Amino acid sequence: MSFEIPDDRRYLESHEWALEENGTVRVGISDFAQDELGDVVFVELPETGDDLTQEDEFGVIESIKAVSDLYAPVSGEVTAVNEDLFDAPELVNEDPFGEGWMLEIDADDTDELEALLSAEEYEDQIA
Amino acid sequence: MPLQTPPLRGVHAERGAKFTEFGGWDMPVEFDSIRTEHEAVREDVGIFDVSHMGQIHVTGPDATELMQRLTSNDVRRLEVGDSQYAVITDEEGHIIDDTVVYRLPDDDEAVGEPTYLFVPNAGTDEATHERWISYRNEWDLEATVDNRTDEYAMFAVQGPNAADLVADVTEESVTDLSRFEARYGTIDDVSCWIARTGYTGEDGFELIVPWSEAERTWSLFDCQPCGLGARDTLRIEAGLLLAGQDFDLESNPRTPYEAGIGFTVALDTEFVGRDALEKVSEEGSEERLVGFQLIDRGVPRHGYDITNTEGRVVGTVTSGTMSPSLEKAIGLGYVPTEYAEPGTTLQVVVRGQSKKARVETTPFIDTV
């Protein structure tokens, strides 16, 4: 099976993606990750205004069969949370790189993203 | 220890299944999505490979007595082609395993000597076989006990349209079978044992098929293949127990009364654990398995604490899931009987946070 891996963003080994635009980083999980989890039924996310540290847990995603922690790709303050996921967690399965996004973070230092994997490196990891 | 592989491992892999270890077997957990498979069974029909279940064959002049003394239900009630749900208990009346006992037709060579086939859970067949042999020898009974787990595949065809599908595939009639009735049937010249039993709360059949014919037989069922993931969500909605999870002799010893399956206990028979269970039946149990629904957002999982409304831990979740049919978070767990009444408010501790829960009657859904 082949998975979508857009090359406009960077990836954590734990399968979160980070898409940066003007210092704001949008975060979600990859197509591969949503497929591994199966039907997503629950997400627990931080609140707007919370401070996150790179690679620390920021939330939890649950499918019918599994519970998985979510890790922050950059440090910074949460400026937006995708509240649609509370009523429609299946958006993570249906559109992991689009409507299934989870957070926006006002990054303290966008250079932190350099430590993440490129699309190509991430593809090698999940191969 | 290497995992045992079901006869259809390759067919399932080809079909794109994901696999998981279960009871020492490498089994398909998901083919398409748990929700899709679950809905197929609730609304139409789906097929499960349950070849990890054990099959133990017992025959001989004393077969009935051996079965009677090692299982909790009344085996004497079984005519040829009947089956019954039963538990295997230890001297204290704690459940070792749950099983379905089928009475097969007498062997042509030994008419009048009853023959039984019973189905212990995945990974327990060897210990169960040894238990039967050891008690047979101790009691000096004349019965042959064979572990045939590796000779048979087992499929479950389940759902409101299961009867039509199974009738199409088999040469003999099957739609006239009542719940828990069974007979030999023929599928593409293969003789199989076809029983109107299941583990989903829906109408359906379980078929015991020679291992060597598994692939050919499986391929004749044109319906949604389902994995252990959907099997679990379906059985939780139906309030059915999972061995090793909702009871476990080592980590969570329970009597059938505590587990809510007292109907499997025939106290007017003699079996290992009977005297202890008579005492429990007279004195009552302190705890009881209940179904509950989470009112707050969250998903209950095996091992989470259950507290009362003051926050004192009173029990443990043994099974839980997000119910695909009800779109509610539901679970099973043991609590003191004072909290077991439907409507009672409890809490389930999810990652350190107390989530409001309410005791519900089980099954959670309408079942056959």
Automatic annotation (TrEMBL), chain A:
Question: Per its UniProt record, what SUPFAM superfamilies does this chain match?
Answer: Single hybrid motif (SSF51230)
Nucleotide-binding recorded as keyword: no
Does Transcription appear among the keywords?
no
UniProt feature coiled coil, ranges: none
Q: Which UniProt keywords apply?
A: Lipoyl
Top-rank taxon: Archaea
**CC cofactor:** (R)-lipoate
Which GO terms of the cellular component aspect does the record hold? cytoplasm; glycine cleavage complex
Instruction: Give GO terms for biological process.
Output: glycine decarboxylation via glycine cleavage system; protein lipoylation
List each copy of the Lipoyl-binding domain by range: 24-106
Q: Which residues carry this modification: N6-lipoyllysine?
A: 65
Explain how, and how many, cofactor molecules are bound. Binds 1 lipoyl cofactor covalently.
Q: Which Pfam families does this UniProt record tie to the protein?
A: GCV_H
UniProt subunit comment: The glycine cleavage system is composed of four proteins: P, T, L and H.
Q: Which protein family is it in? A: Belongs to the GcvH family.
Function comment: The glycine cleavage system catalyzes the degradation of glycine. The H protein shuttles the methylamine group of glycine from the P protein to the T protein.
The protein's matches in NCBIfam families, at most eight in alphabetical order, are given as: gcvH, PRK01202.1
Q: HAMAP family attached here?
A: GcvH
Protein name (Swiss-Prot/TrEMBL): Probable glycine cleavage system H protein
UniProtKB/TrEMBL annotation, chain B:
Indicate the segments forming the Aminomethyltransferase C-terminal domain, all copies. 288-366
Known EC number:
2.1.2.10
**GO CC entries:** glycine cleavage complex
Question: Any keyword Phosphoprotein?
Answer: no
InterPro entries in the record, alphabetically?
Answer: GcvT (IPR006223), GcvT/YgfZ/DmdA (IPR028896), GcvT/YgfZ_C (IPR029043), GcvT_bac (IPR022903), GcvT_C (IPR013977), GCVT_N (IPR006222), TrmE/GcvT-like (IPR027266)
- Can you tell me which residues bind substrate? 206
Q: Which GO terms describe its molecular function?
A: aminomethyltransferase activity; methyltransferase activity; transaminase activity
- Quickly give the catalysed reaction: N(6)-[(R)-S(8)-aminomethyldihydrolipoyl]-L-lysyl-[protein] + (6S)-5,6,7,8-tetrahydrofolate = N(6)-[(R)-dihydrolipoyl]-L-lysyl-[protein] + (6R)-5,10-methylene-5,6,7,8-tetrahydrofolate + NH4(+)
Its GO biological process annotations read: glycine decarboxylation via glycine cleavage system; methylation
Q: Residue ranges of the GCVT N-terminal domain?
A: 10-268
* Keywords attached to this entry: Aminotransferase, Methyltransferase, Transferase
The family assignment reads: Belongs to the GcvT family.
The free-text function statement in the UniProt record for this protein reads: The glycine cleavage system catalyzes the degradation of glycine.
Protein name, entry field = Probable aminomethyltransferase
> What organism does the record attribute this protein to?
Natronorubrum texcoconense
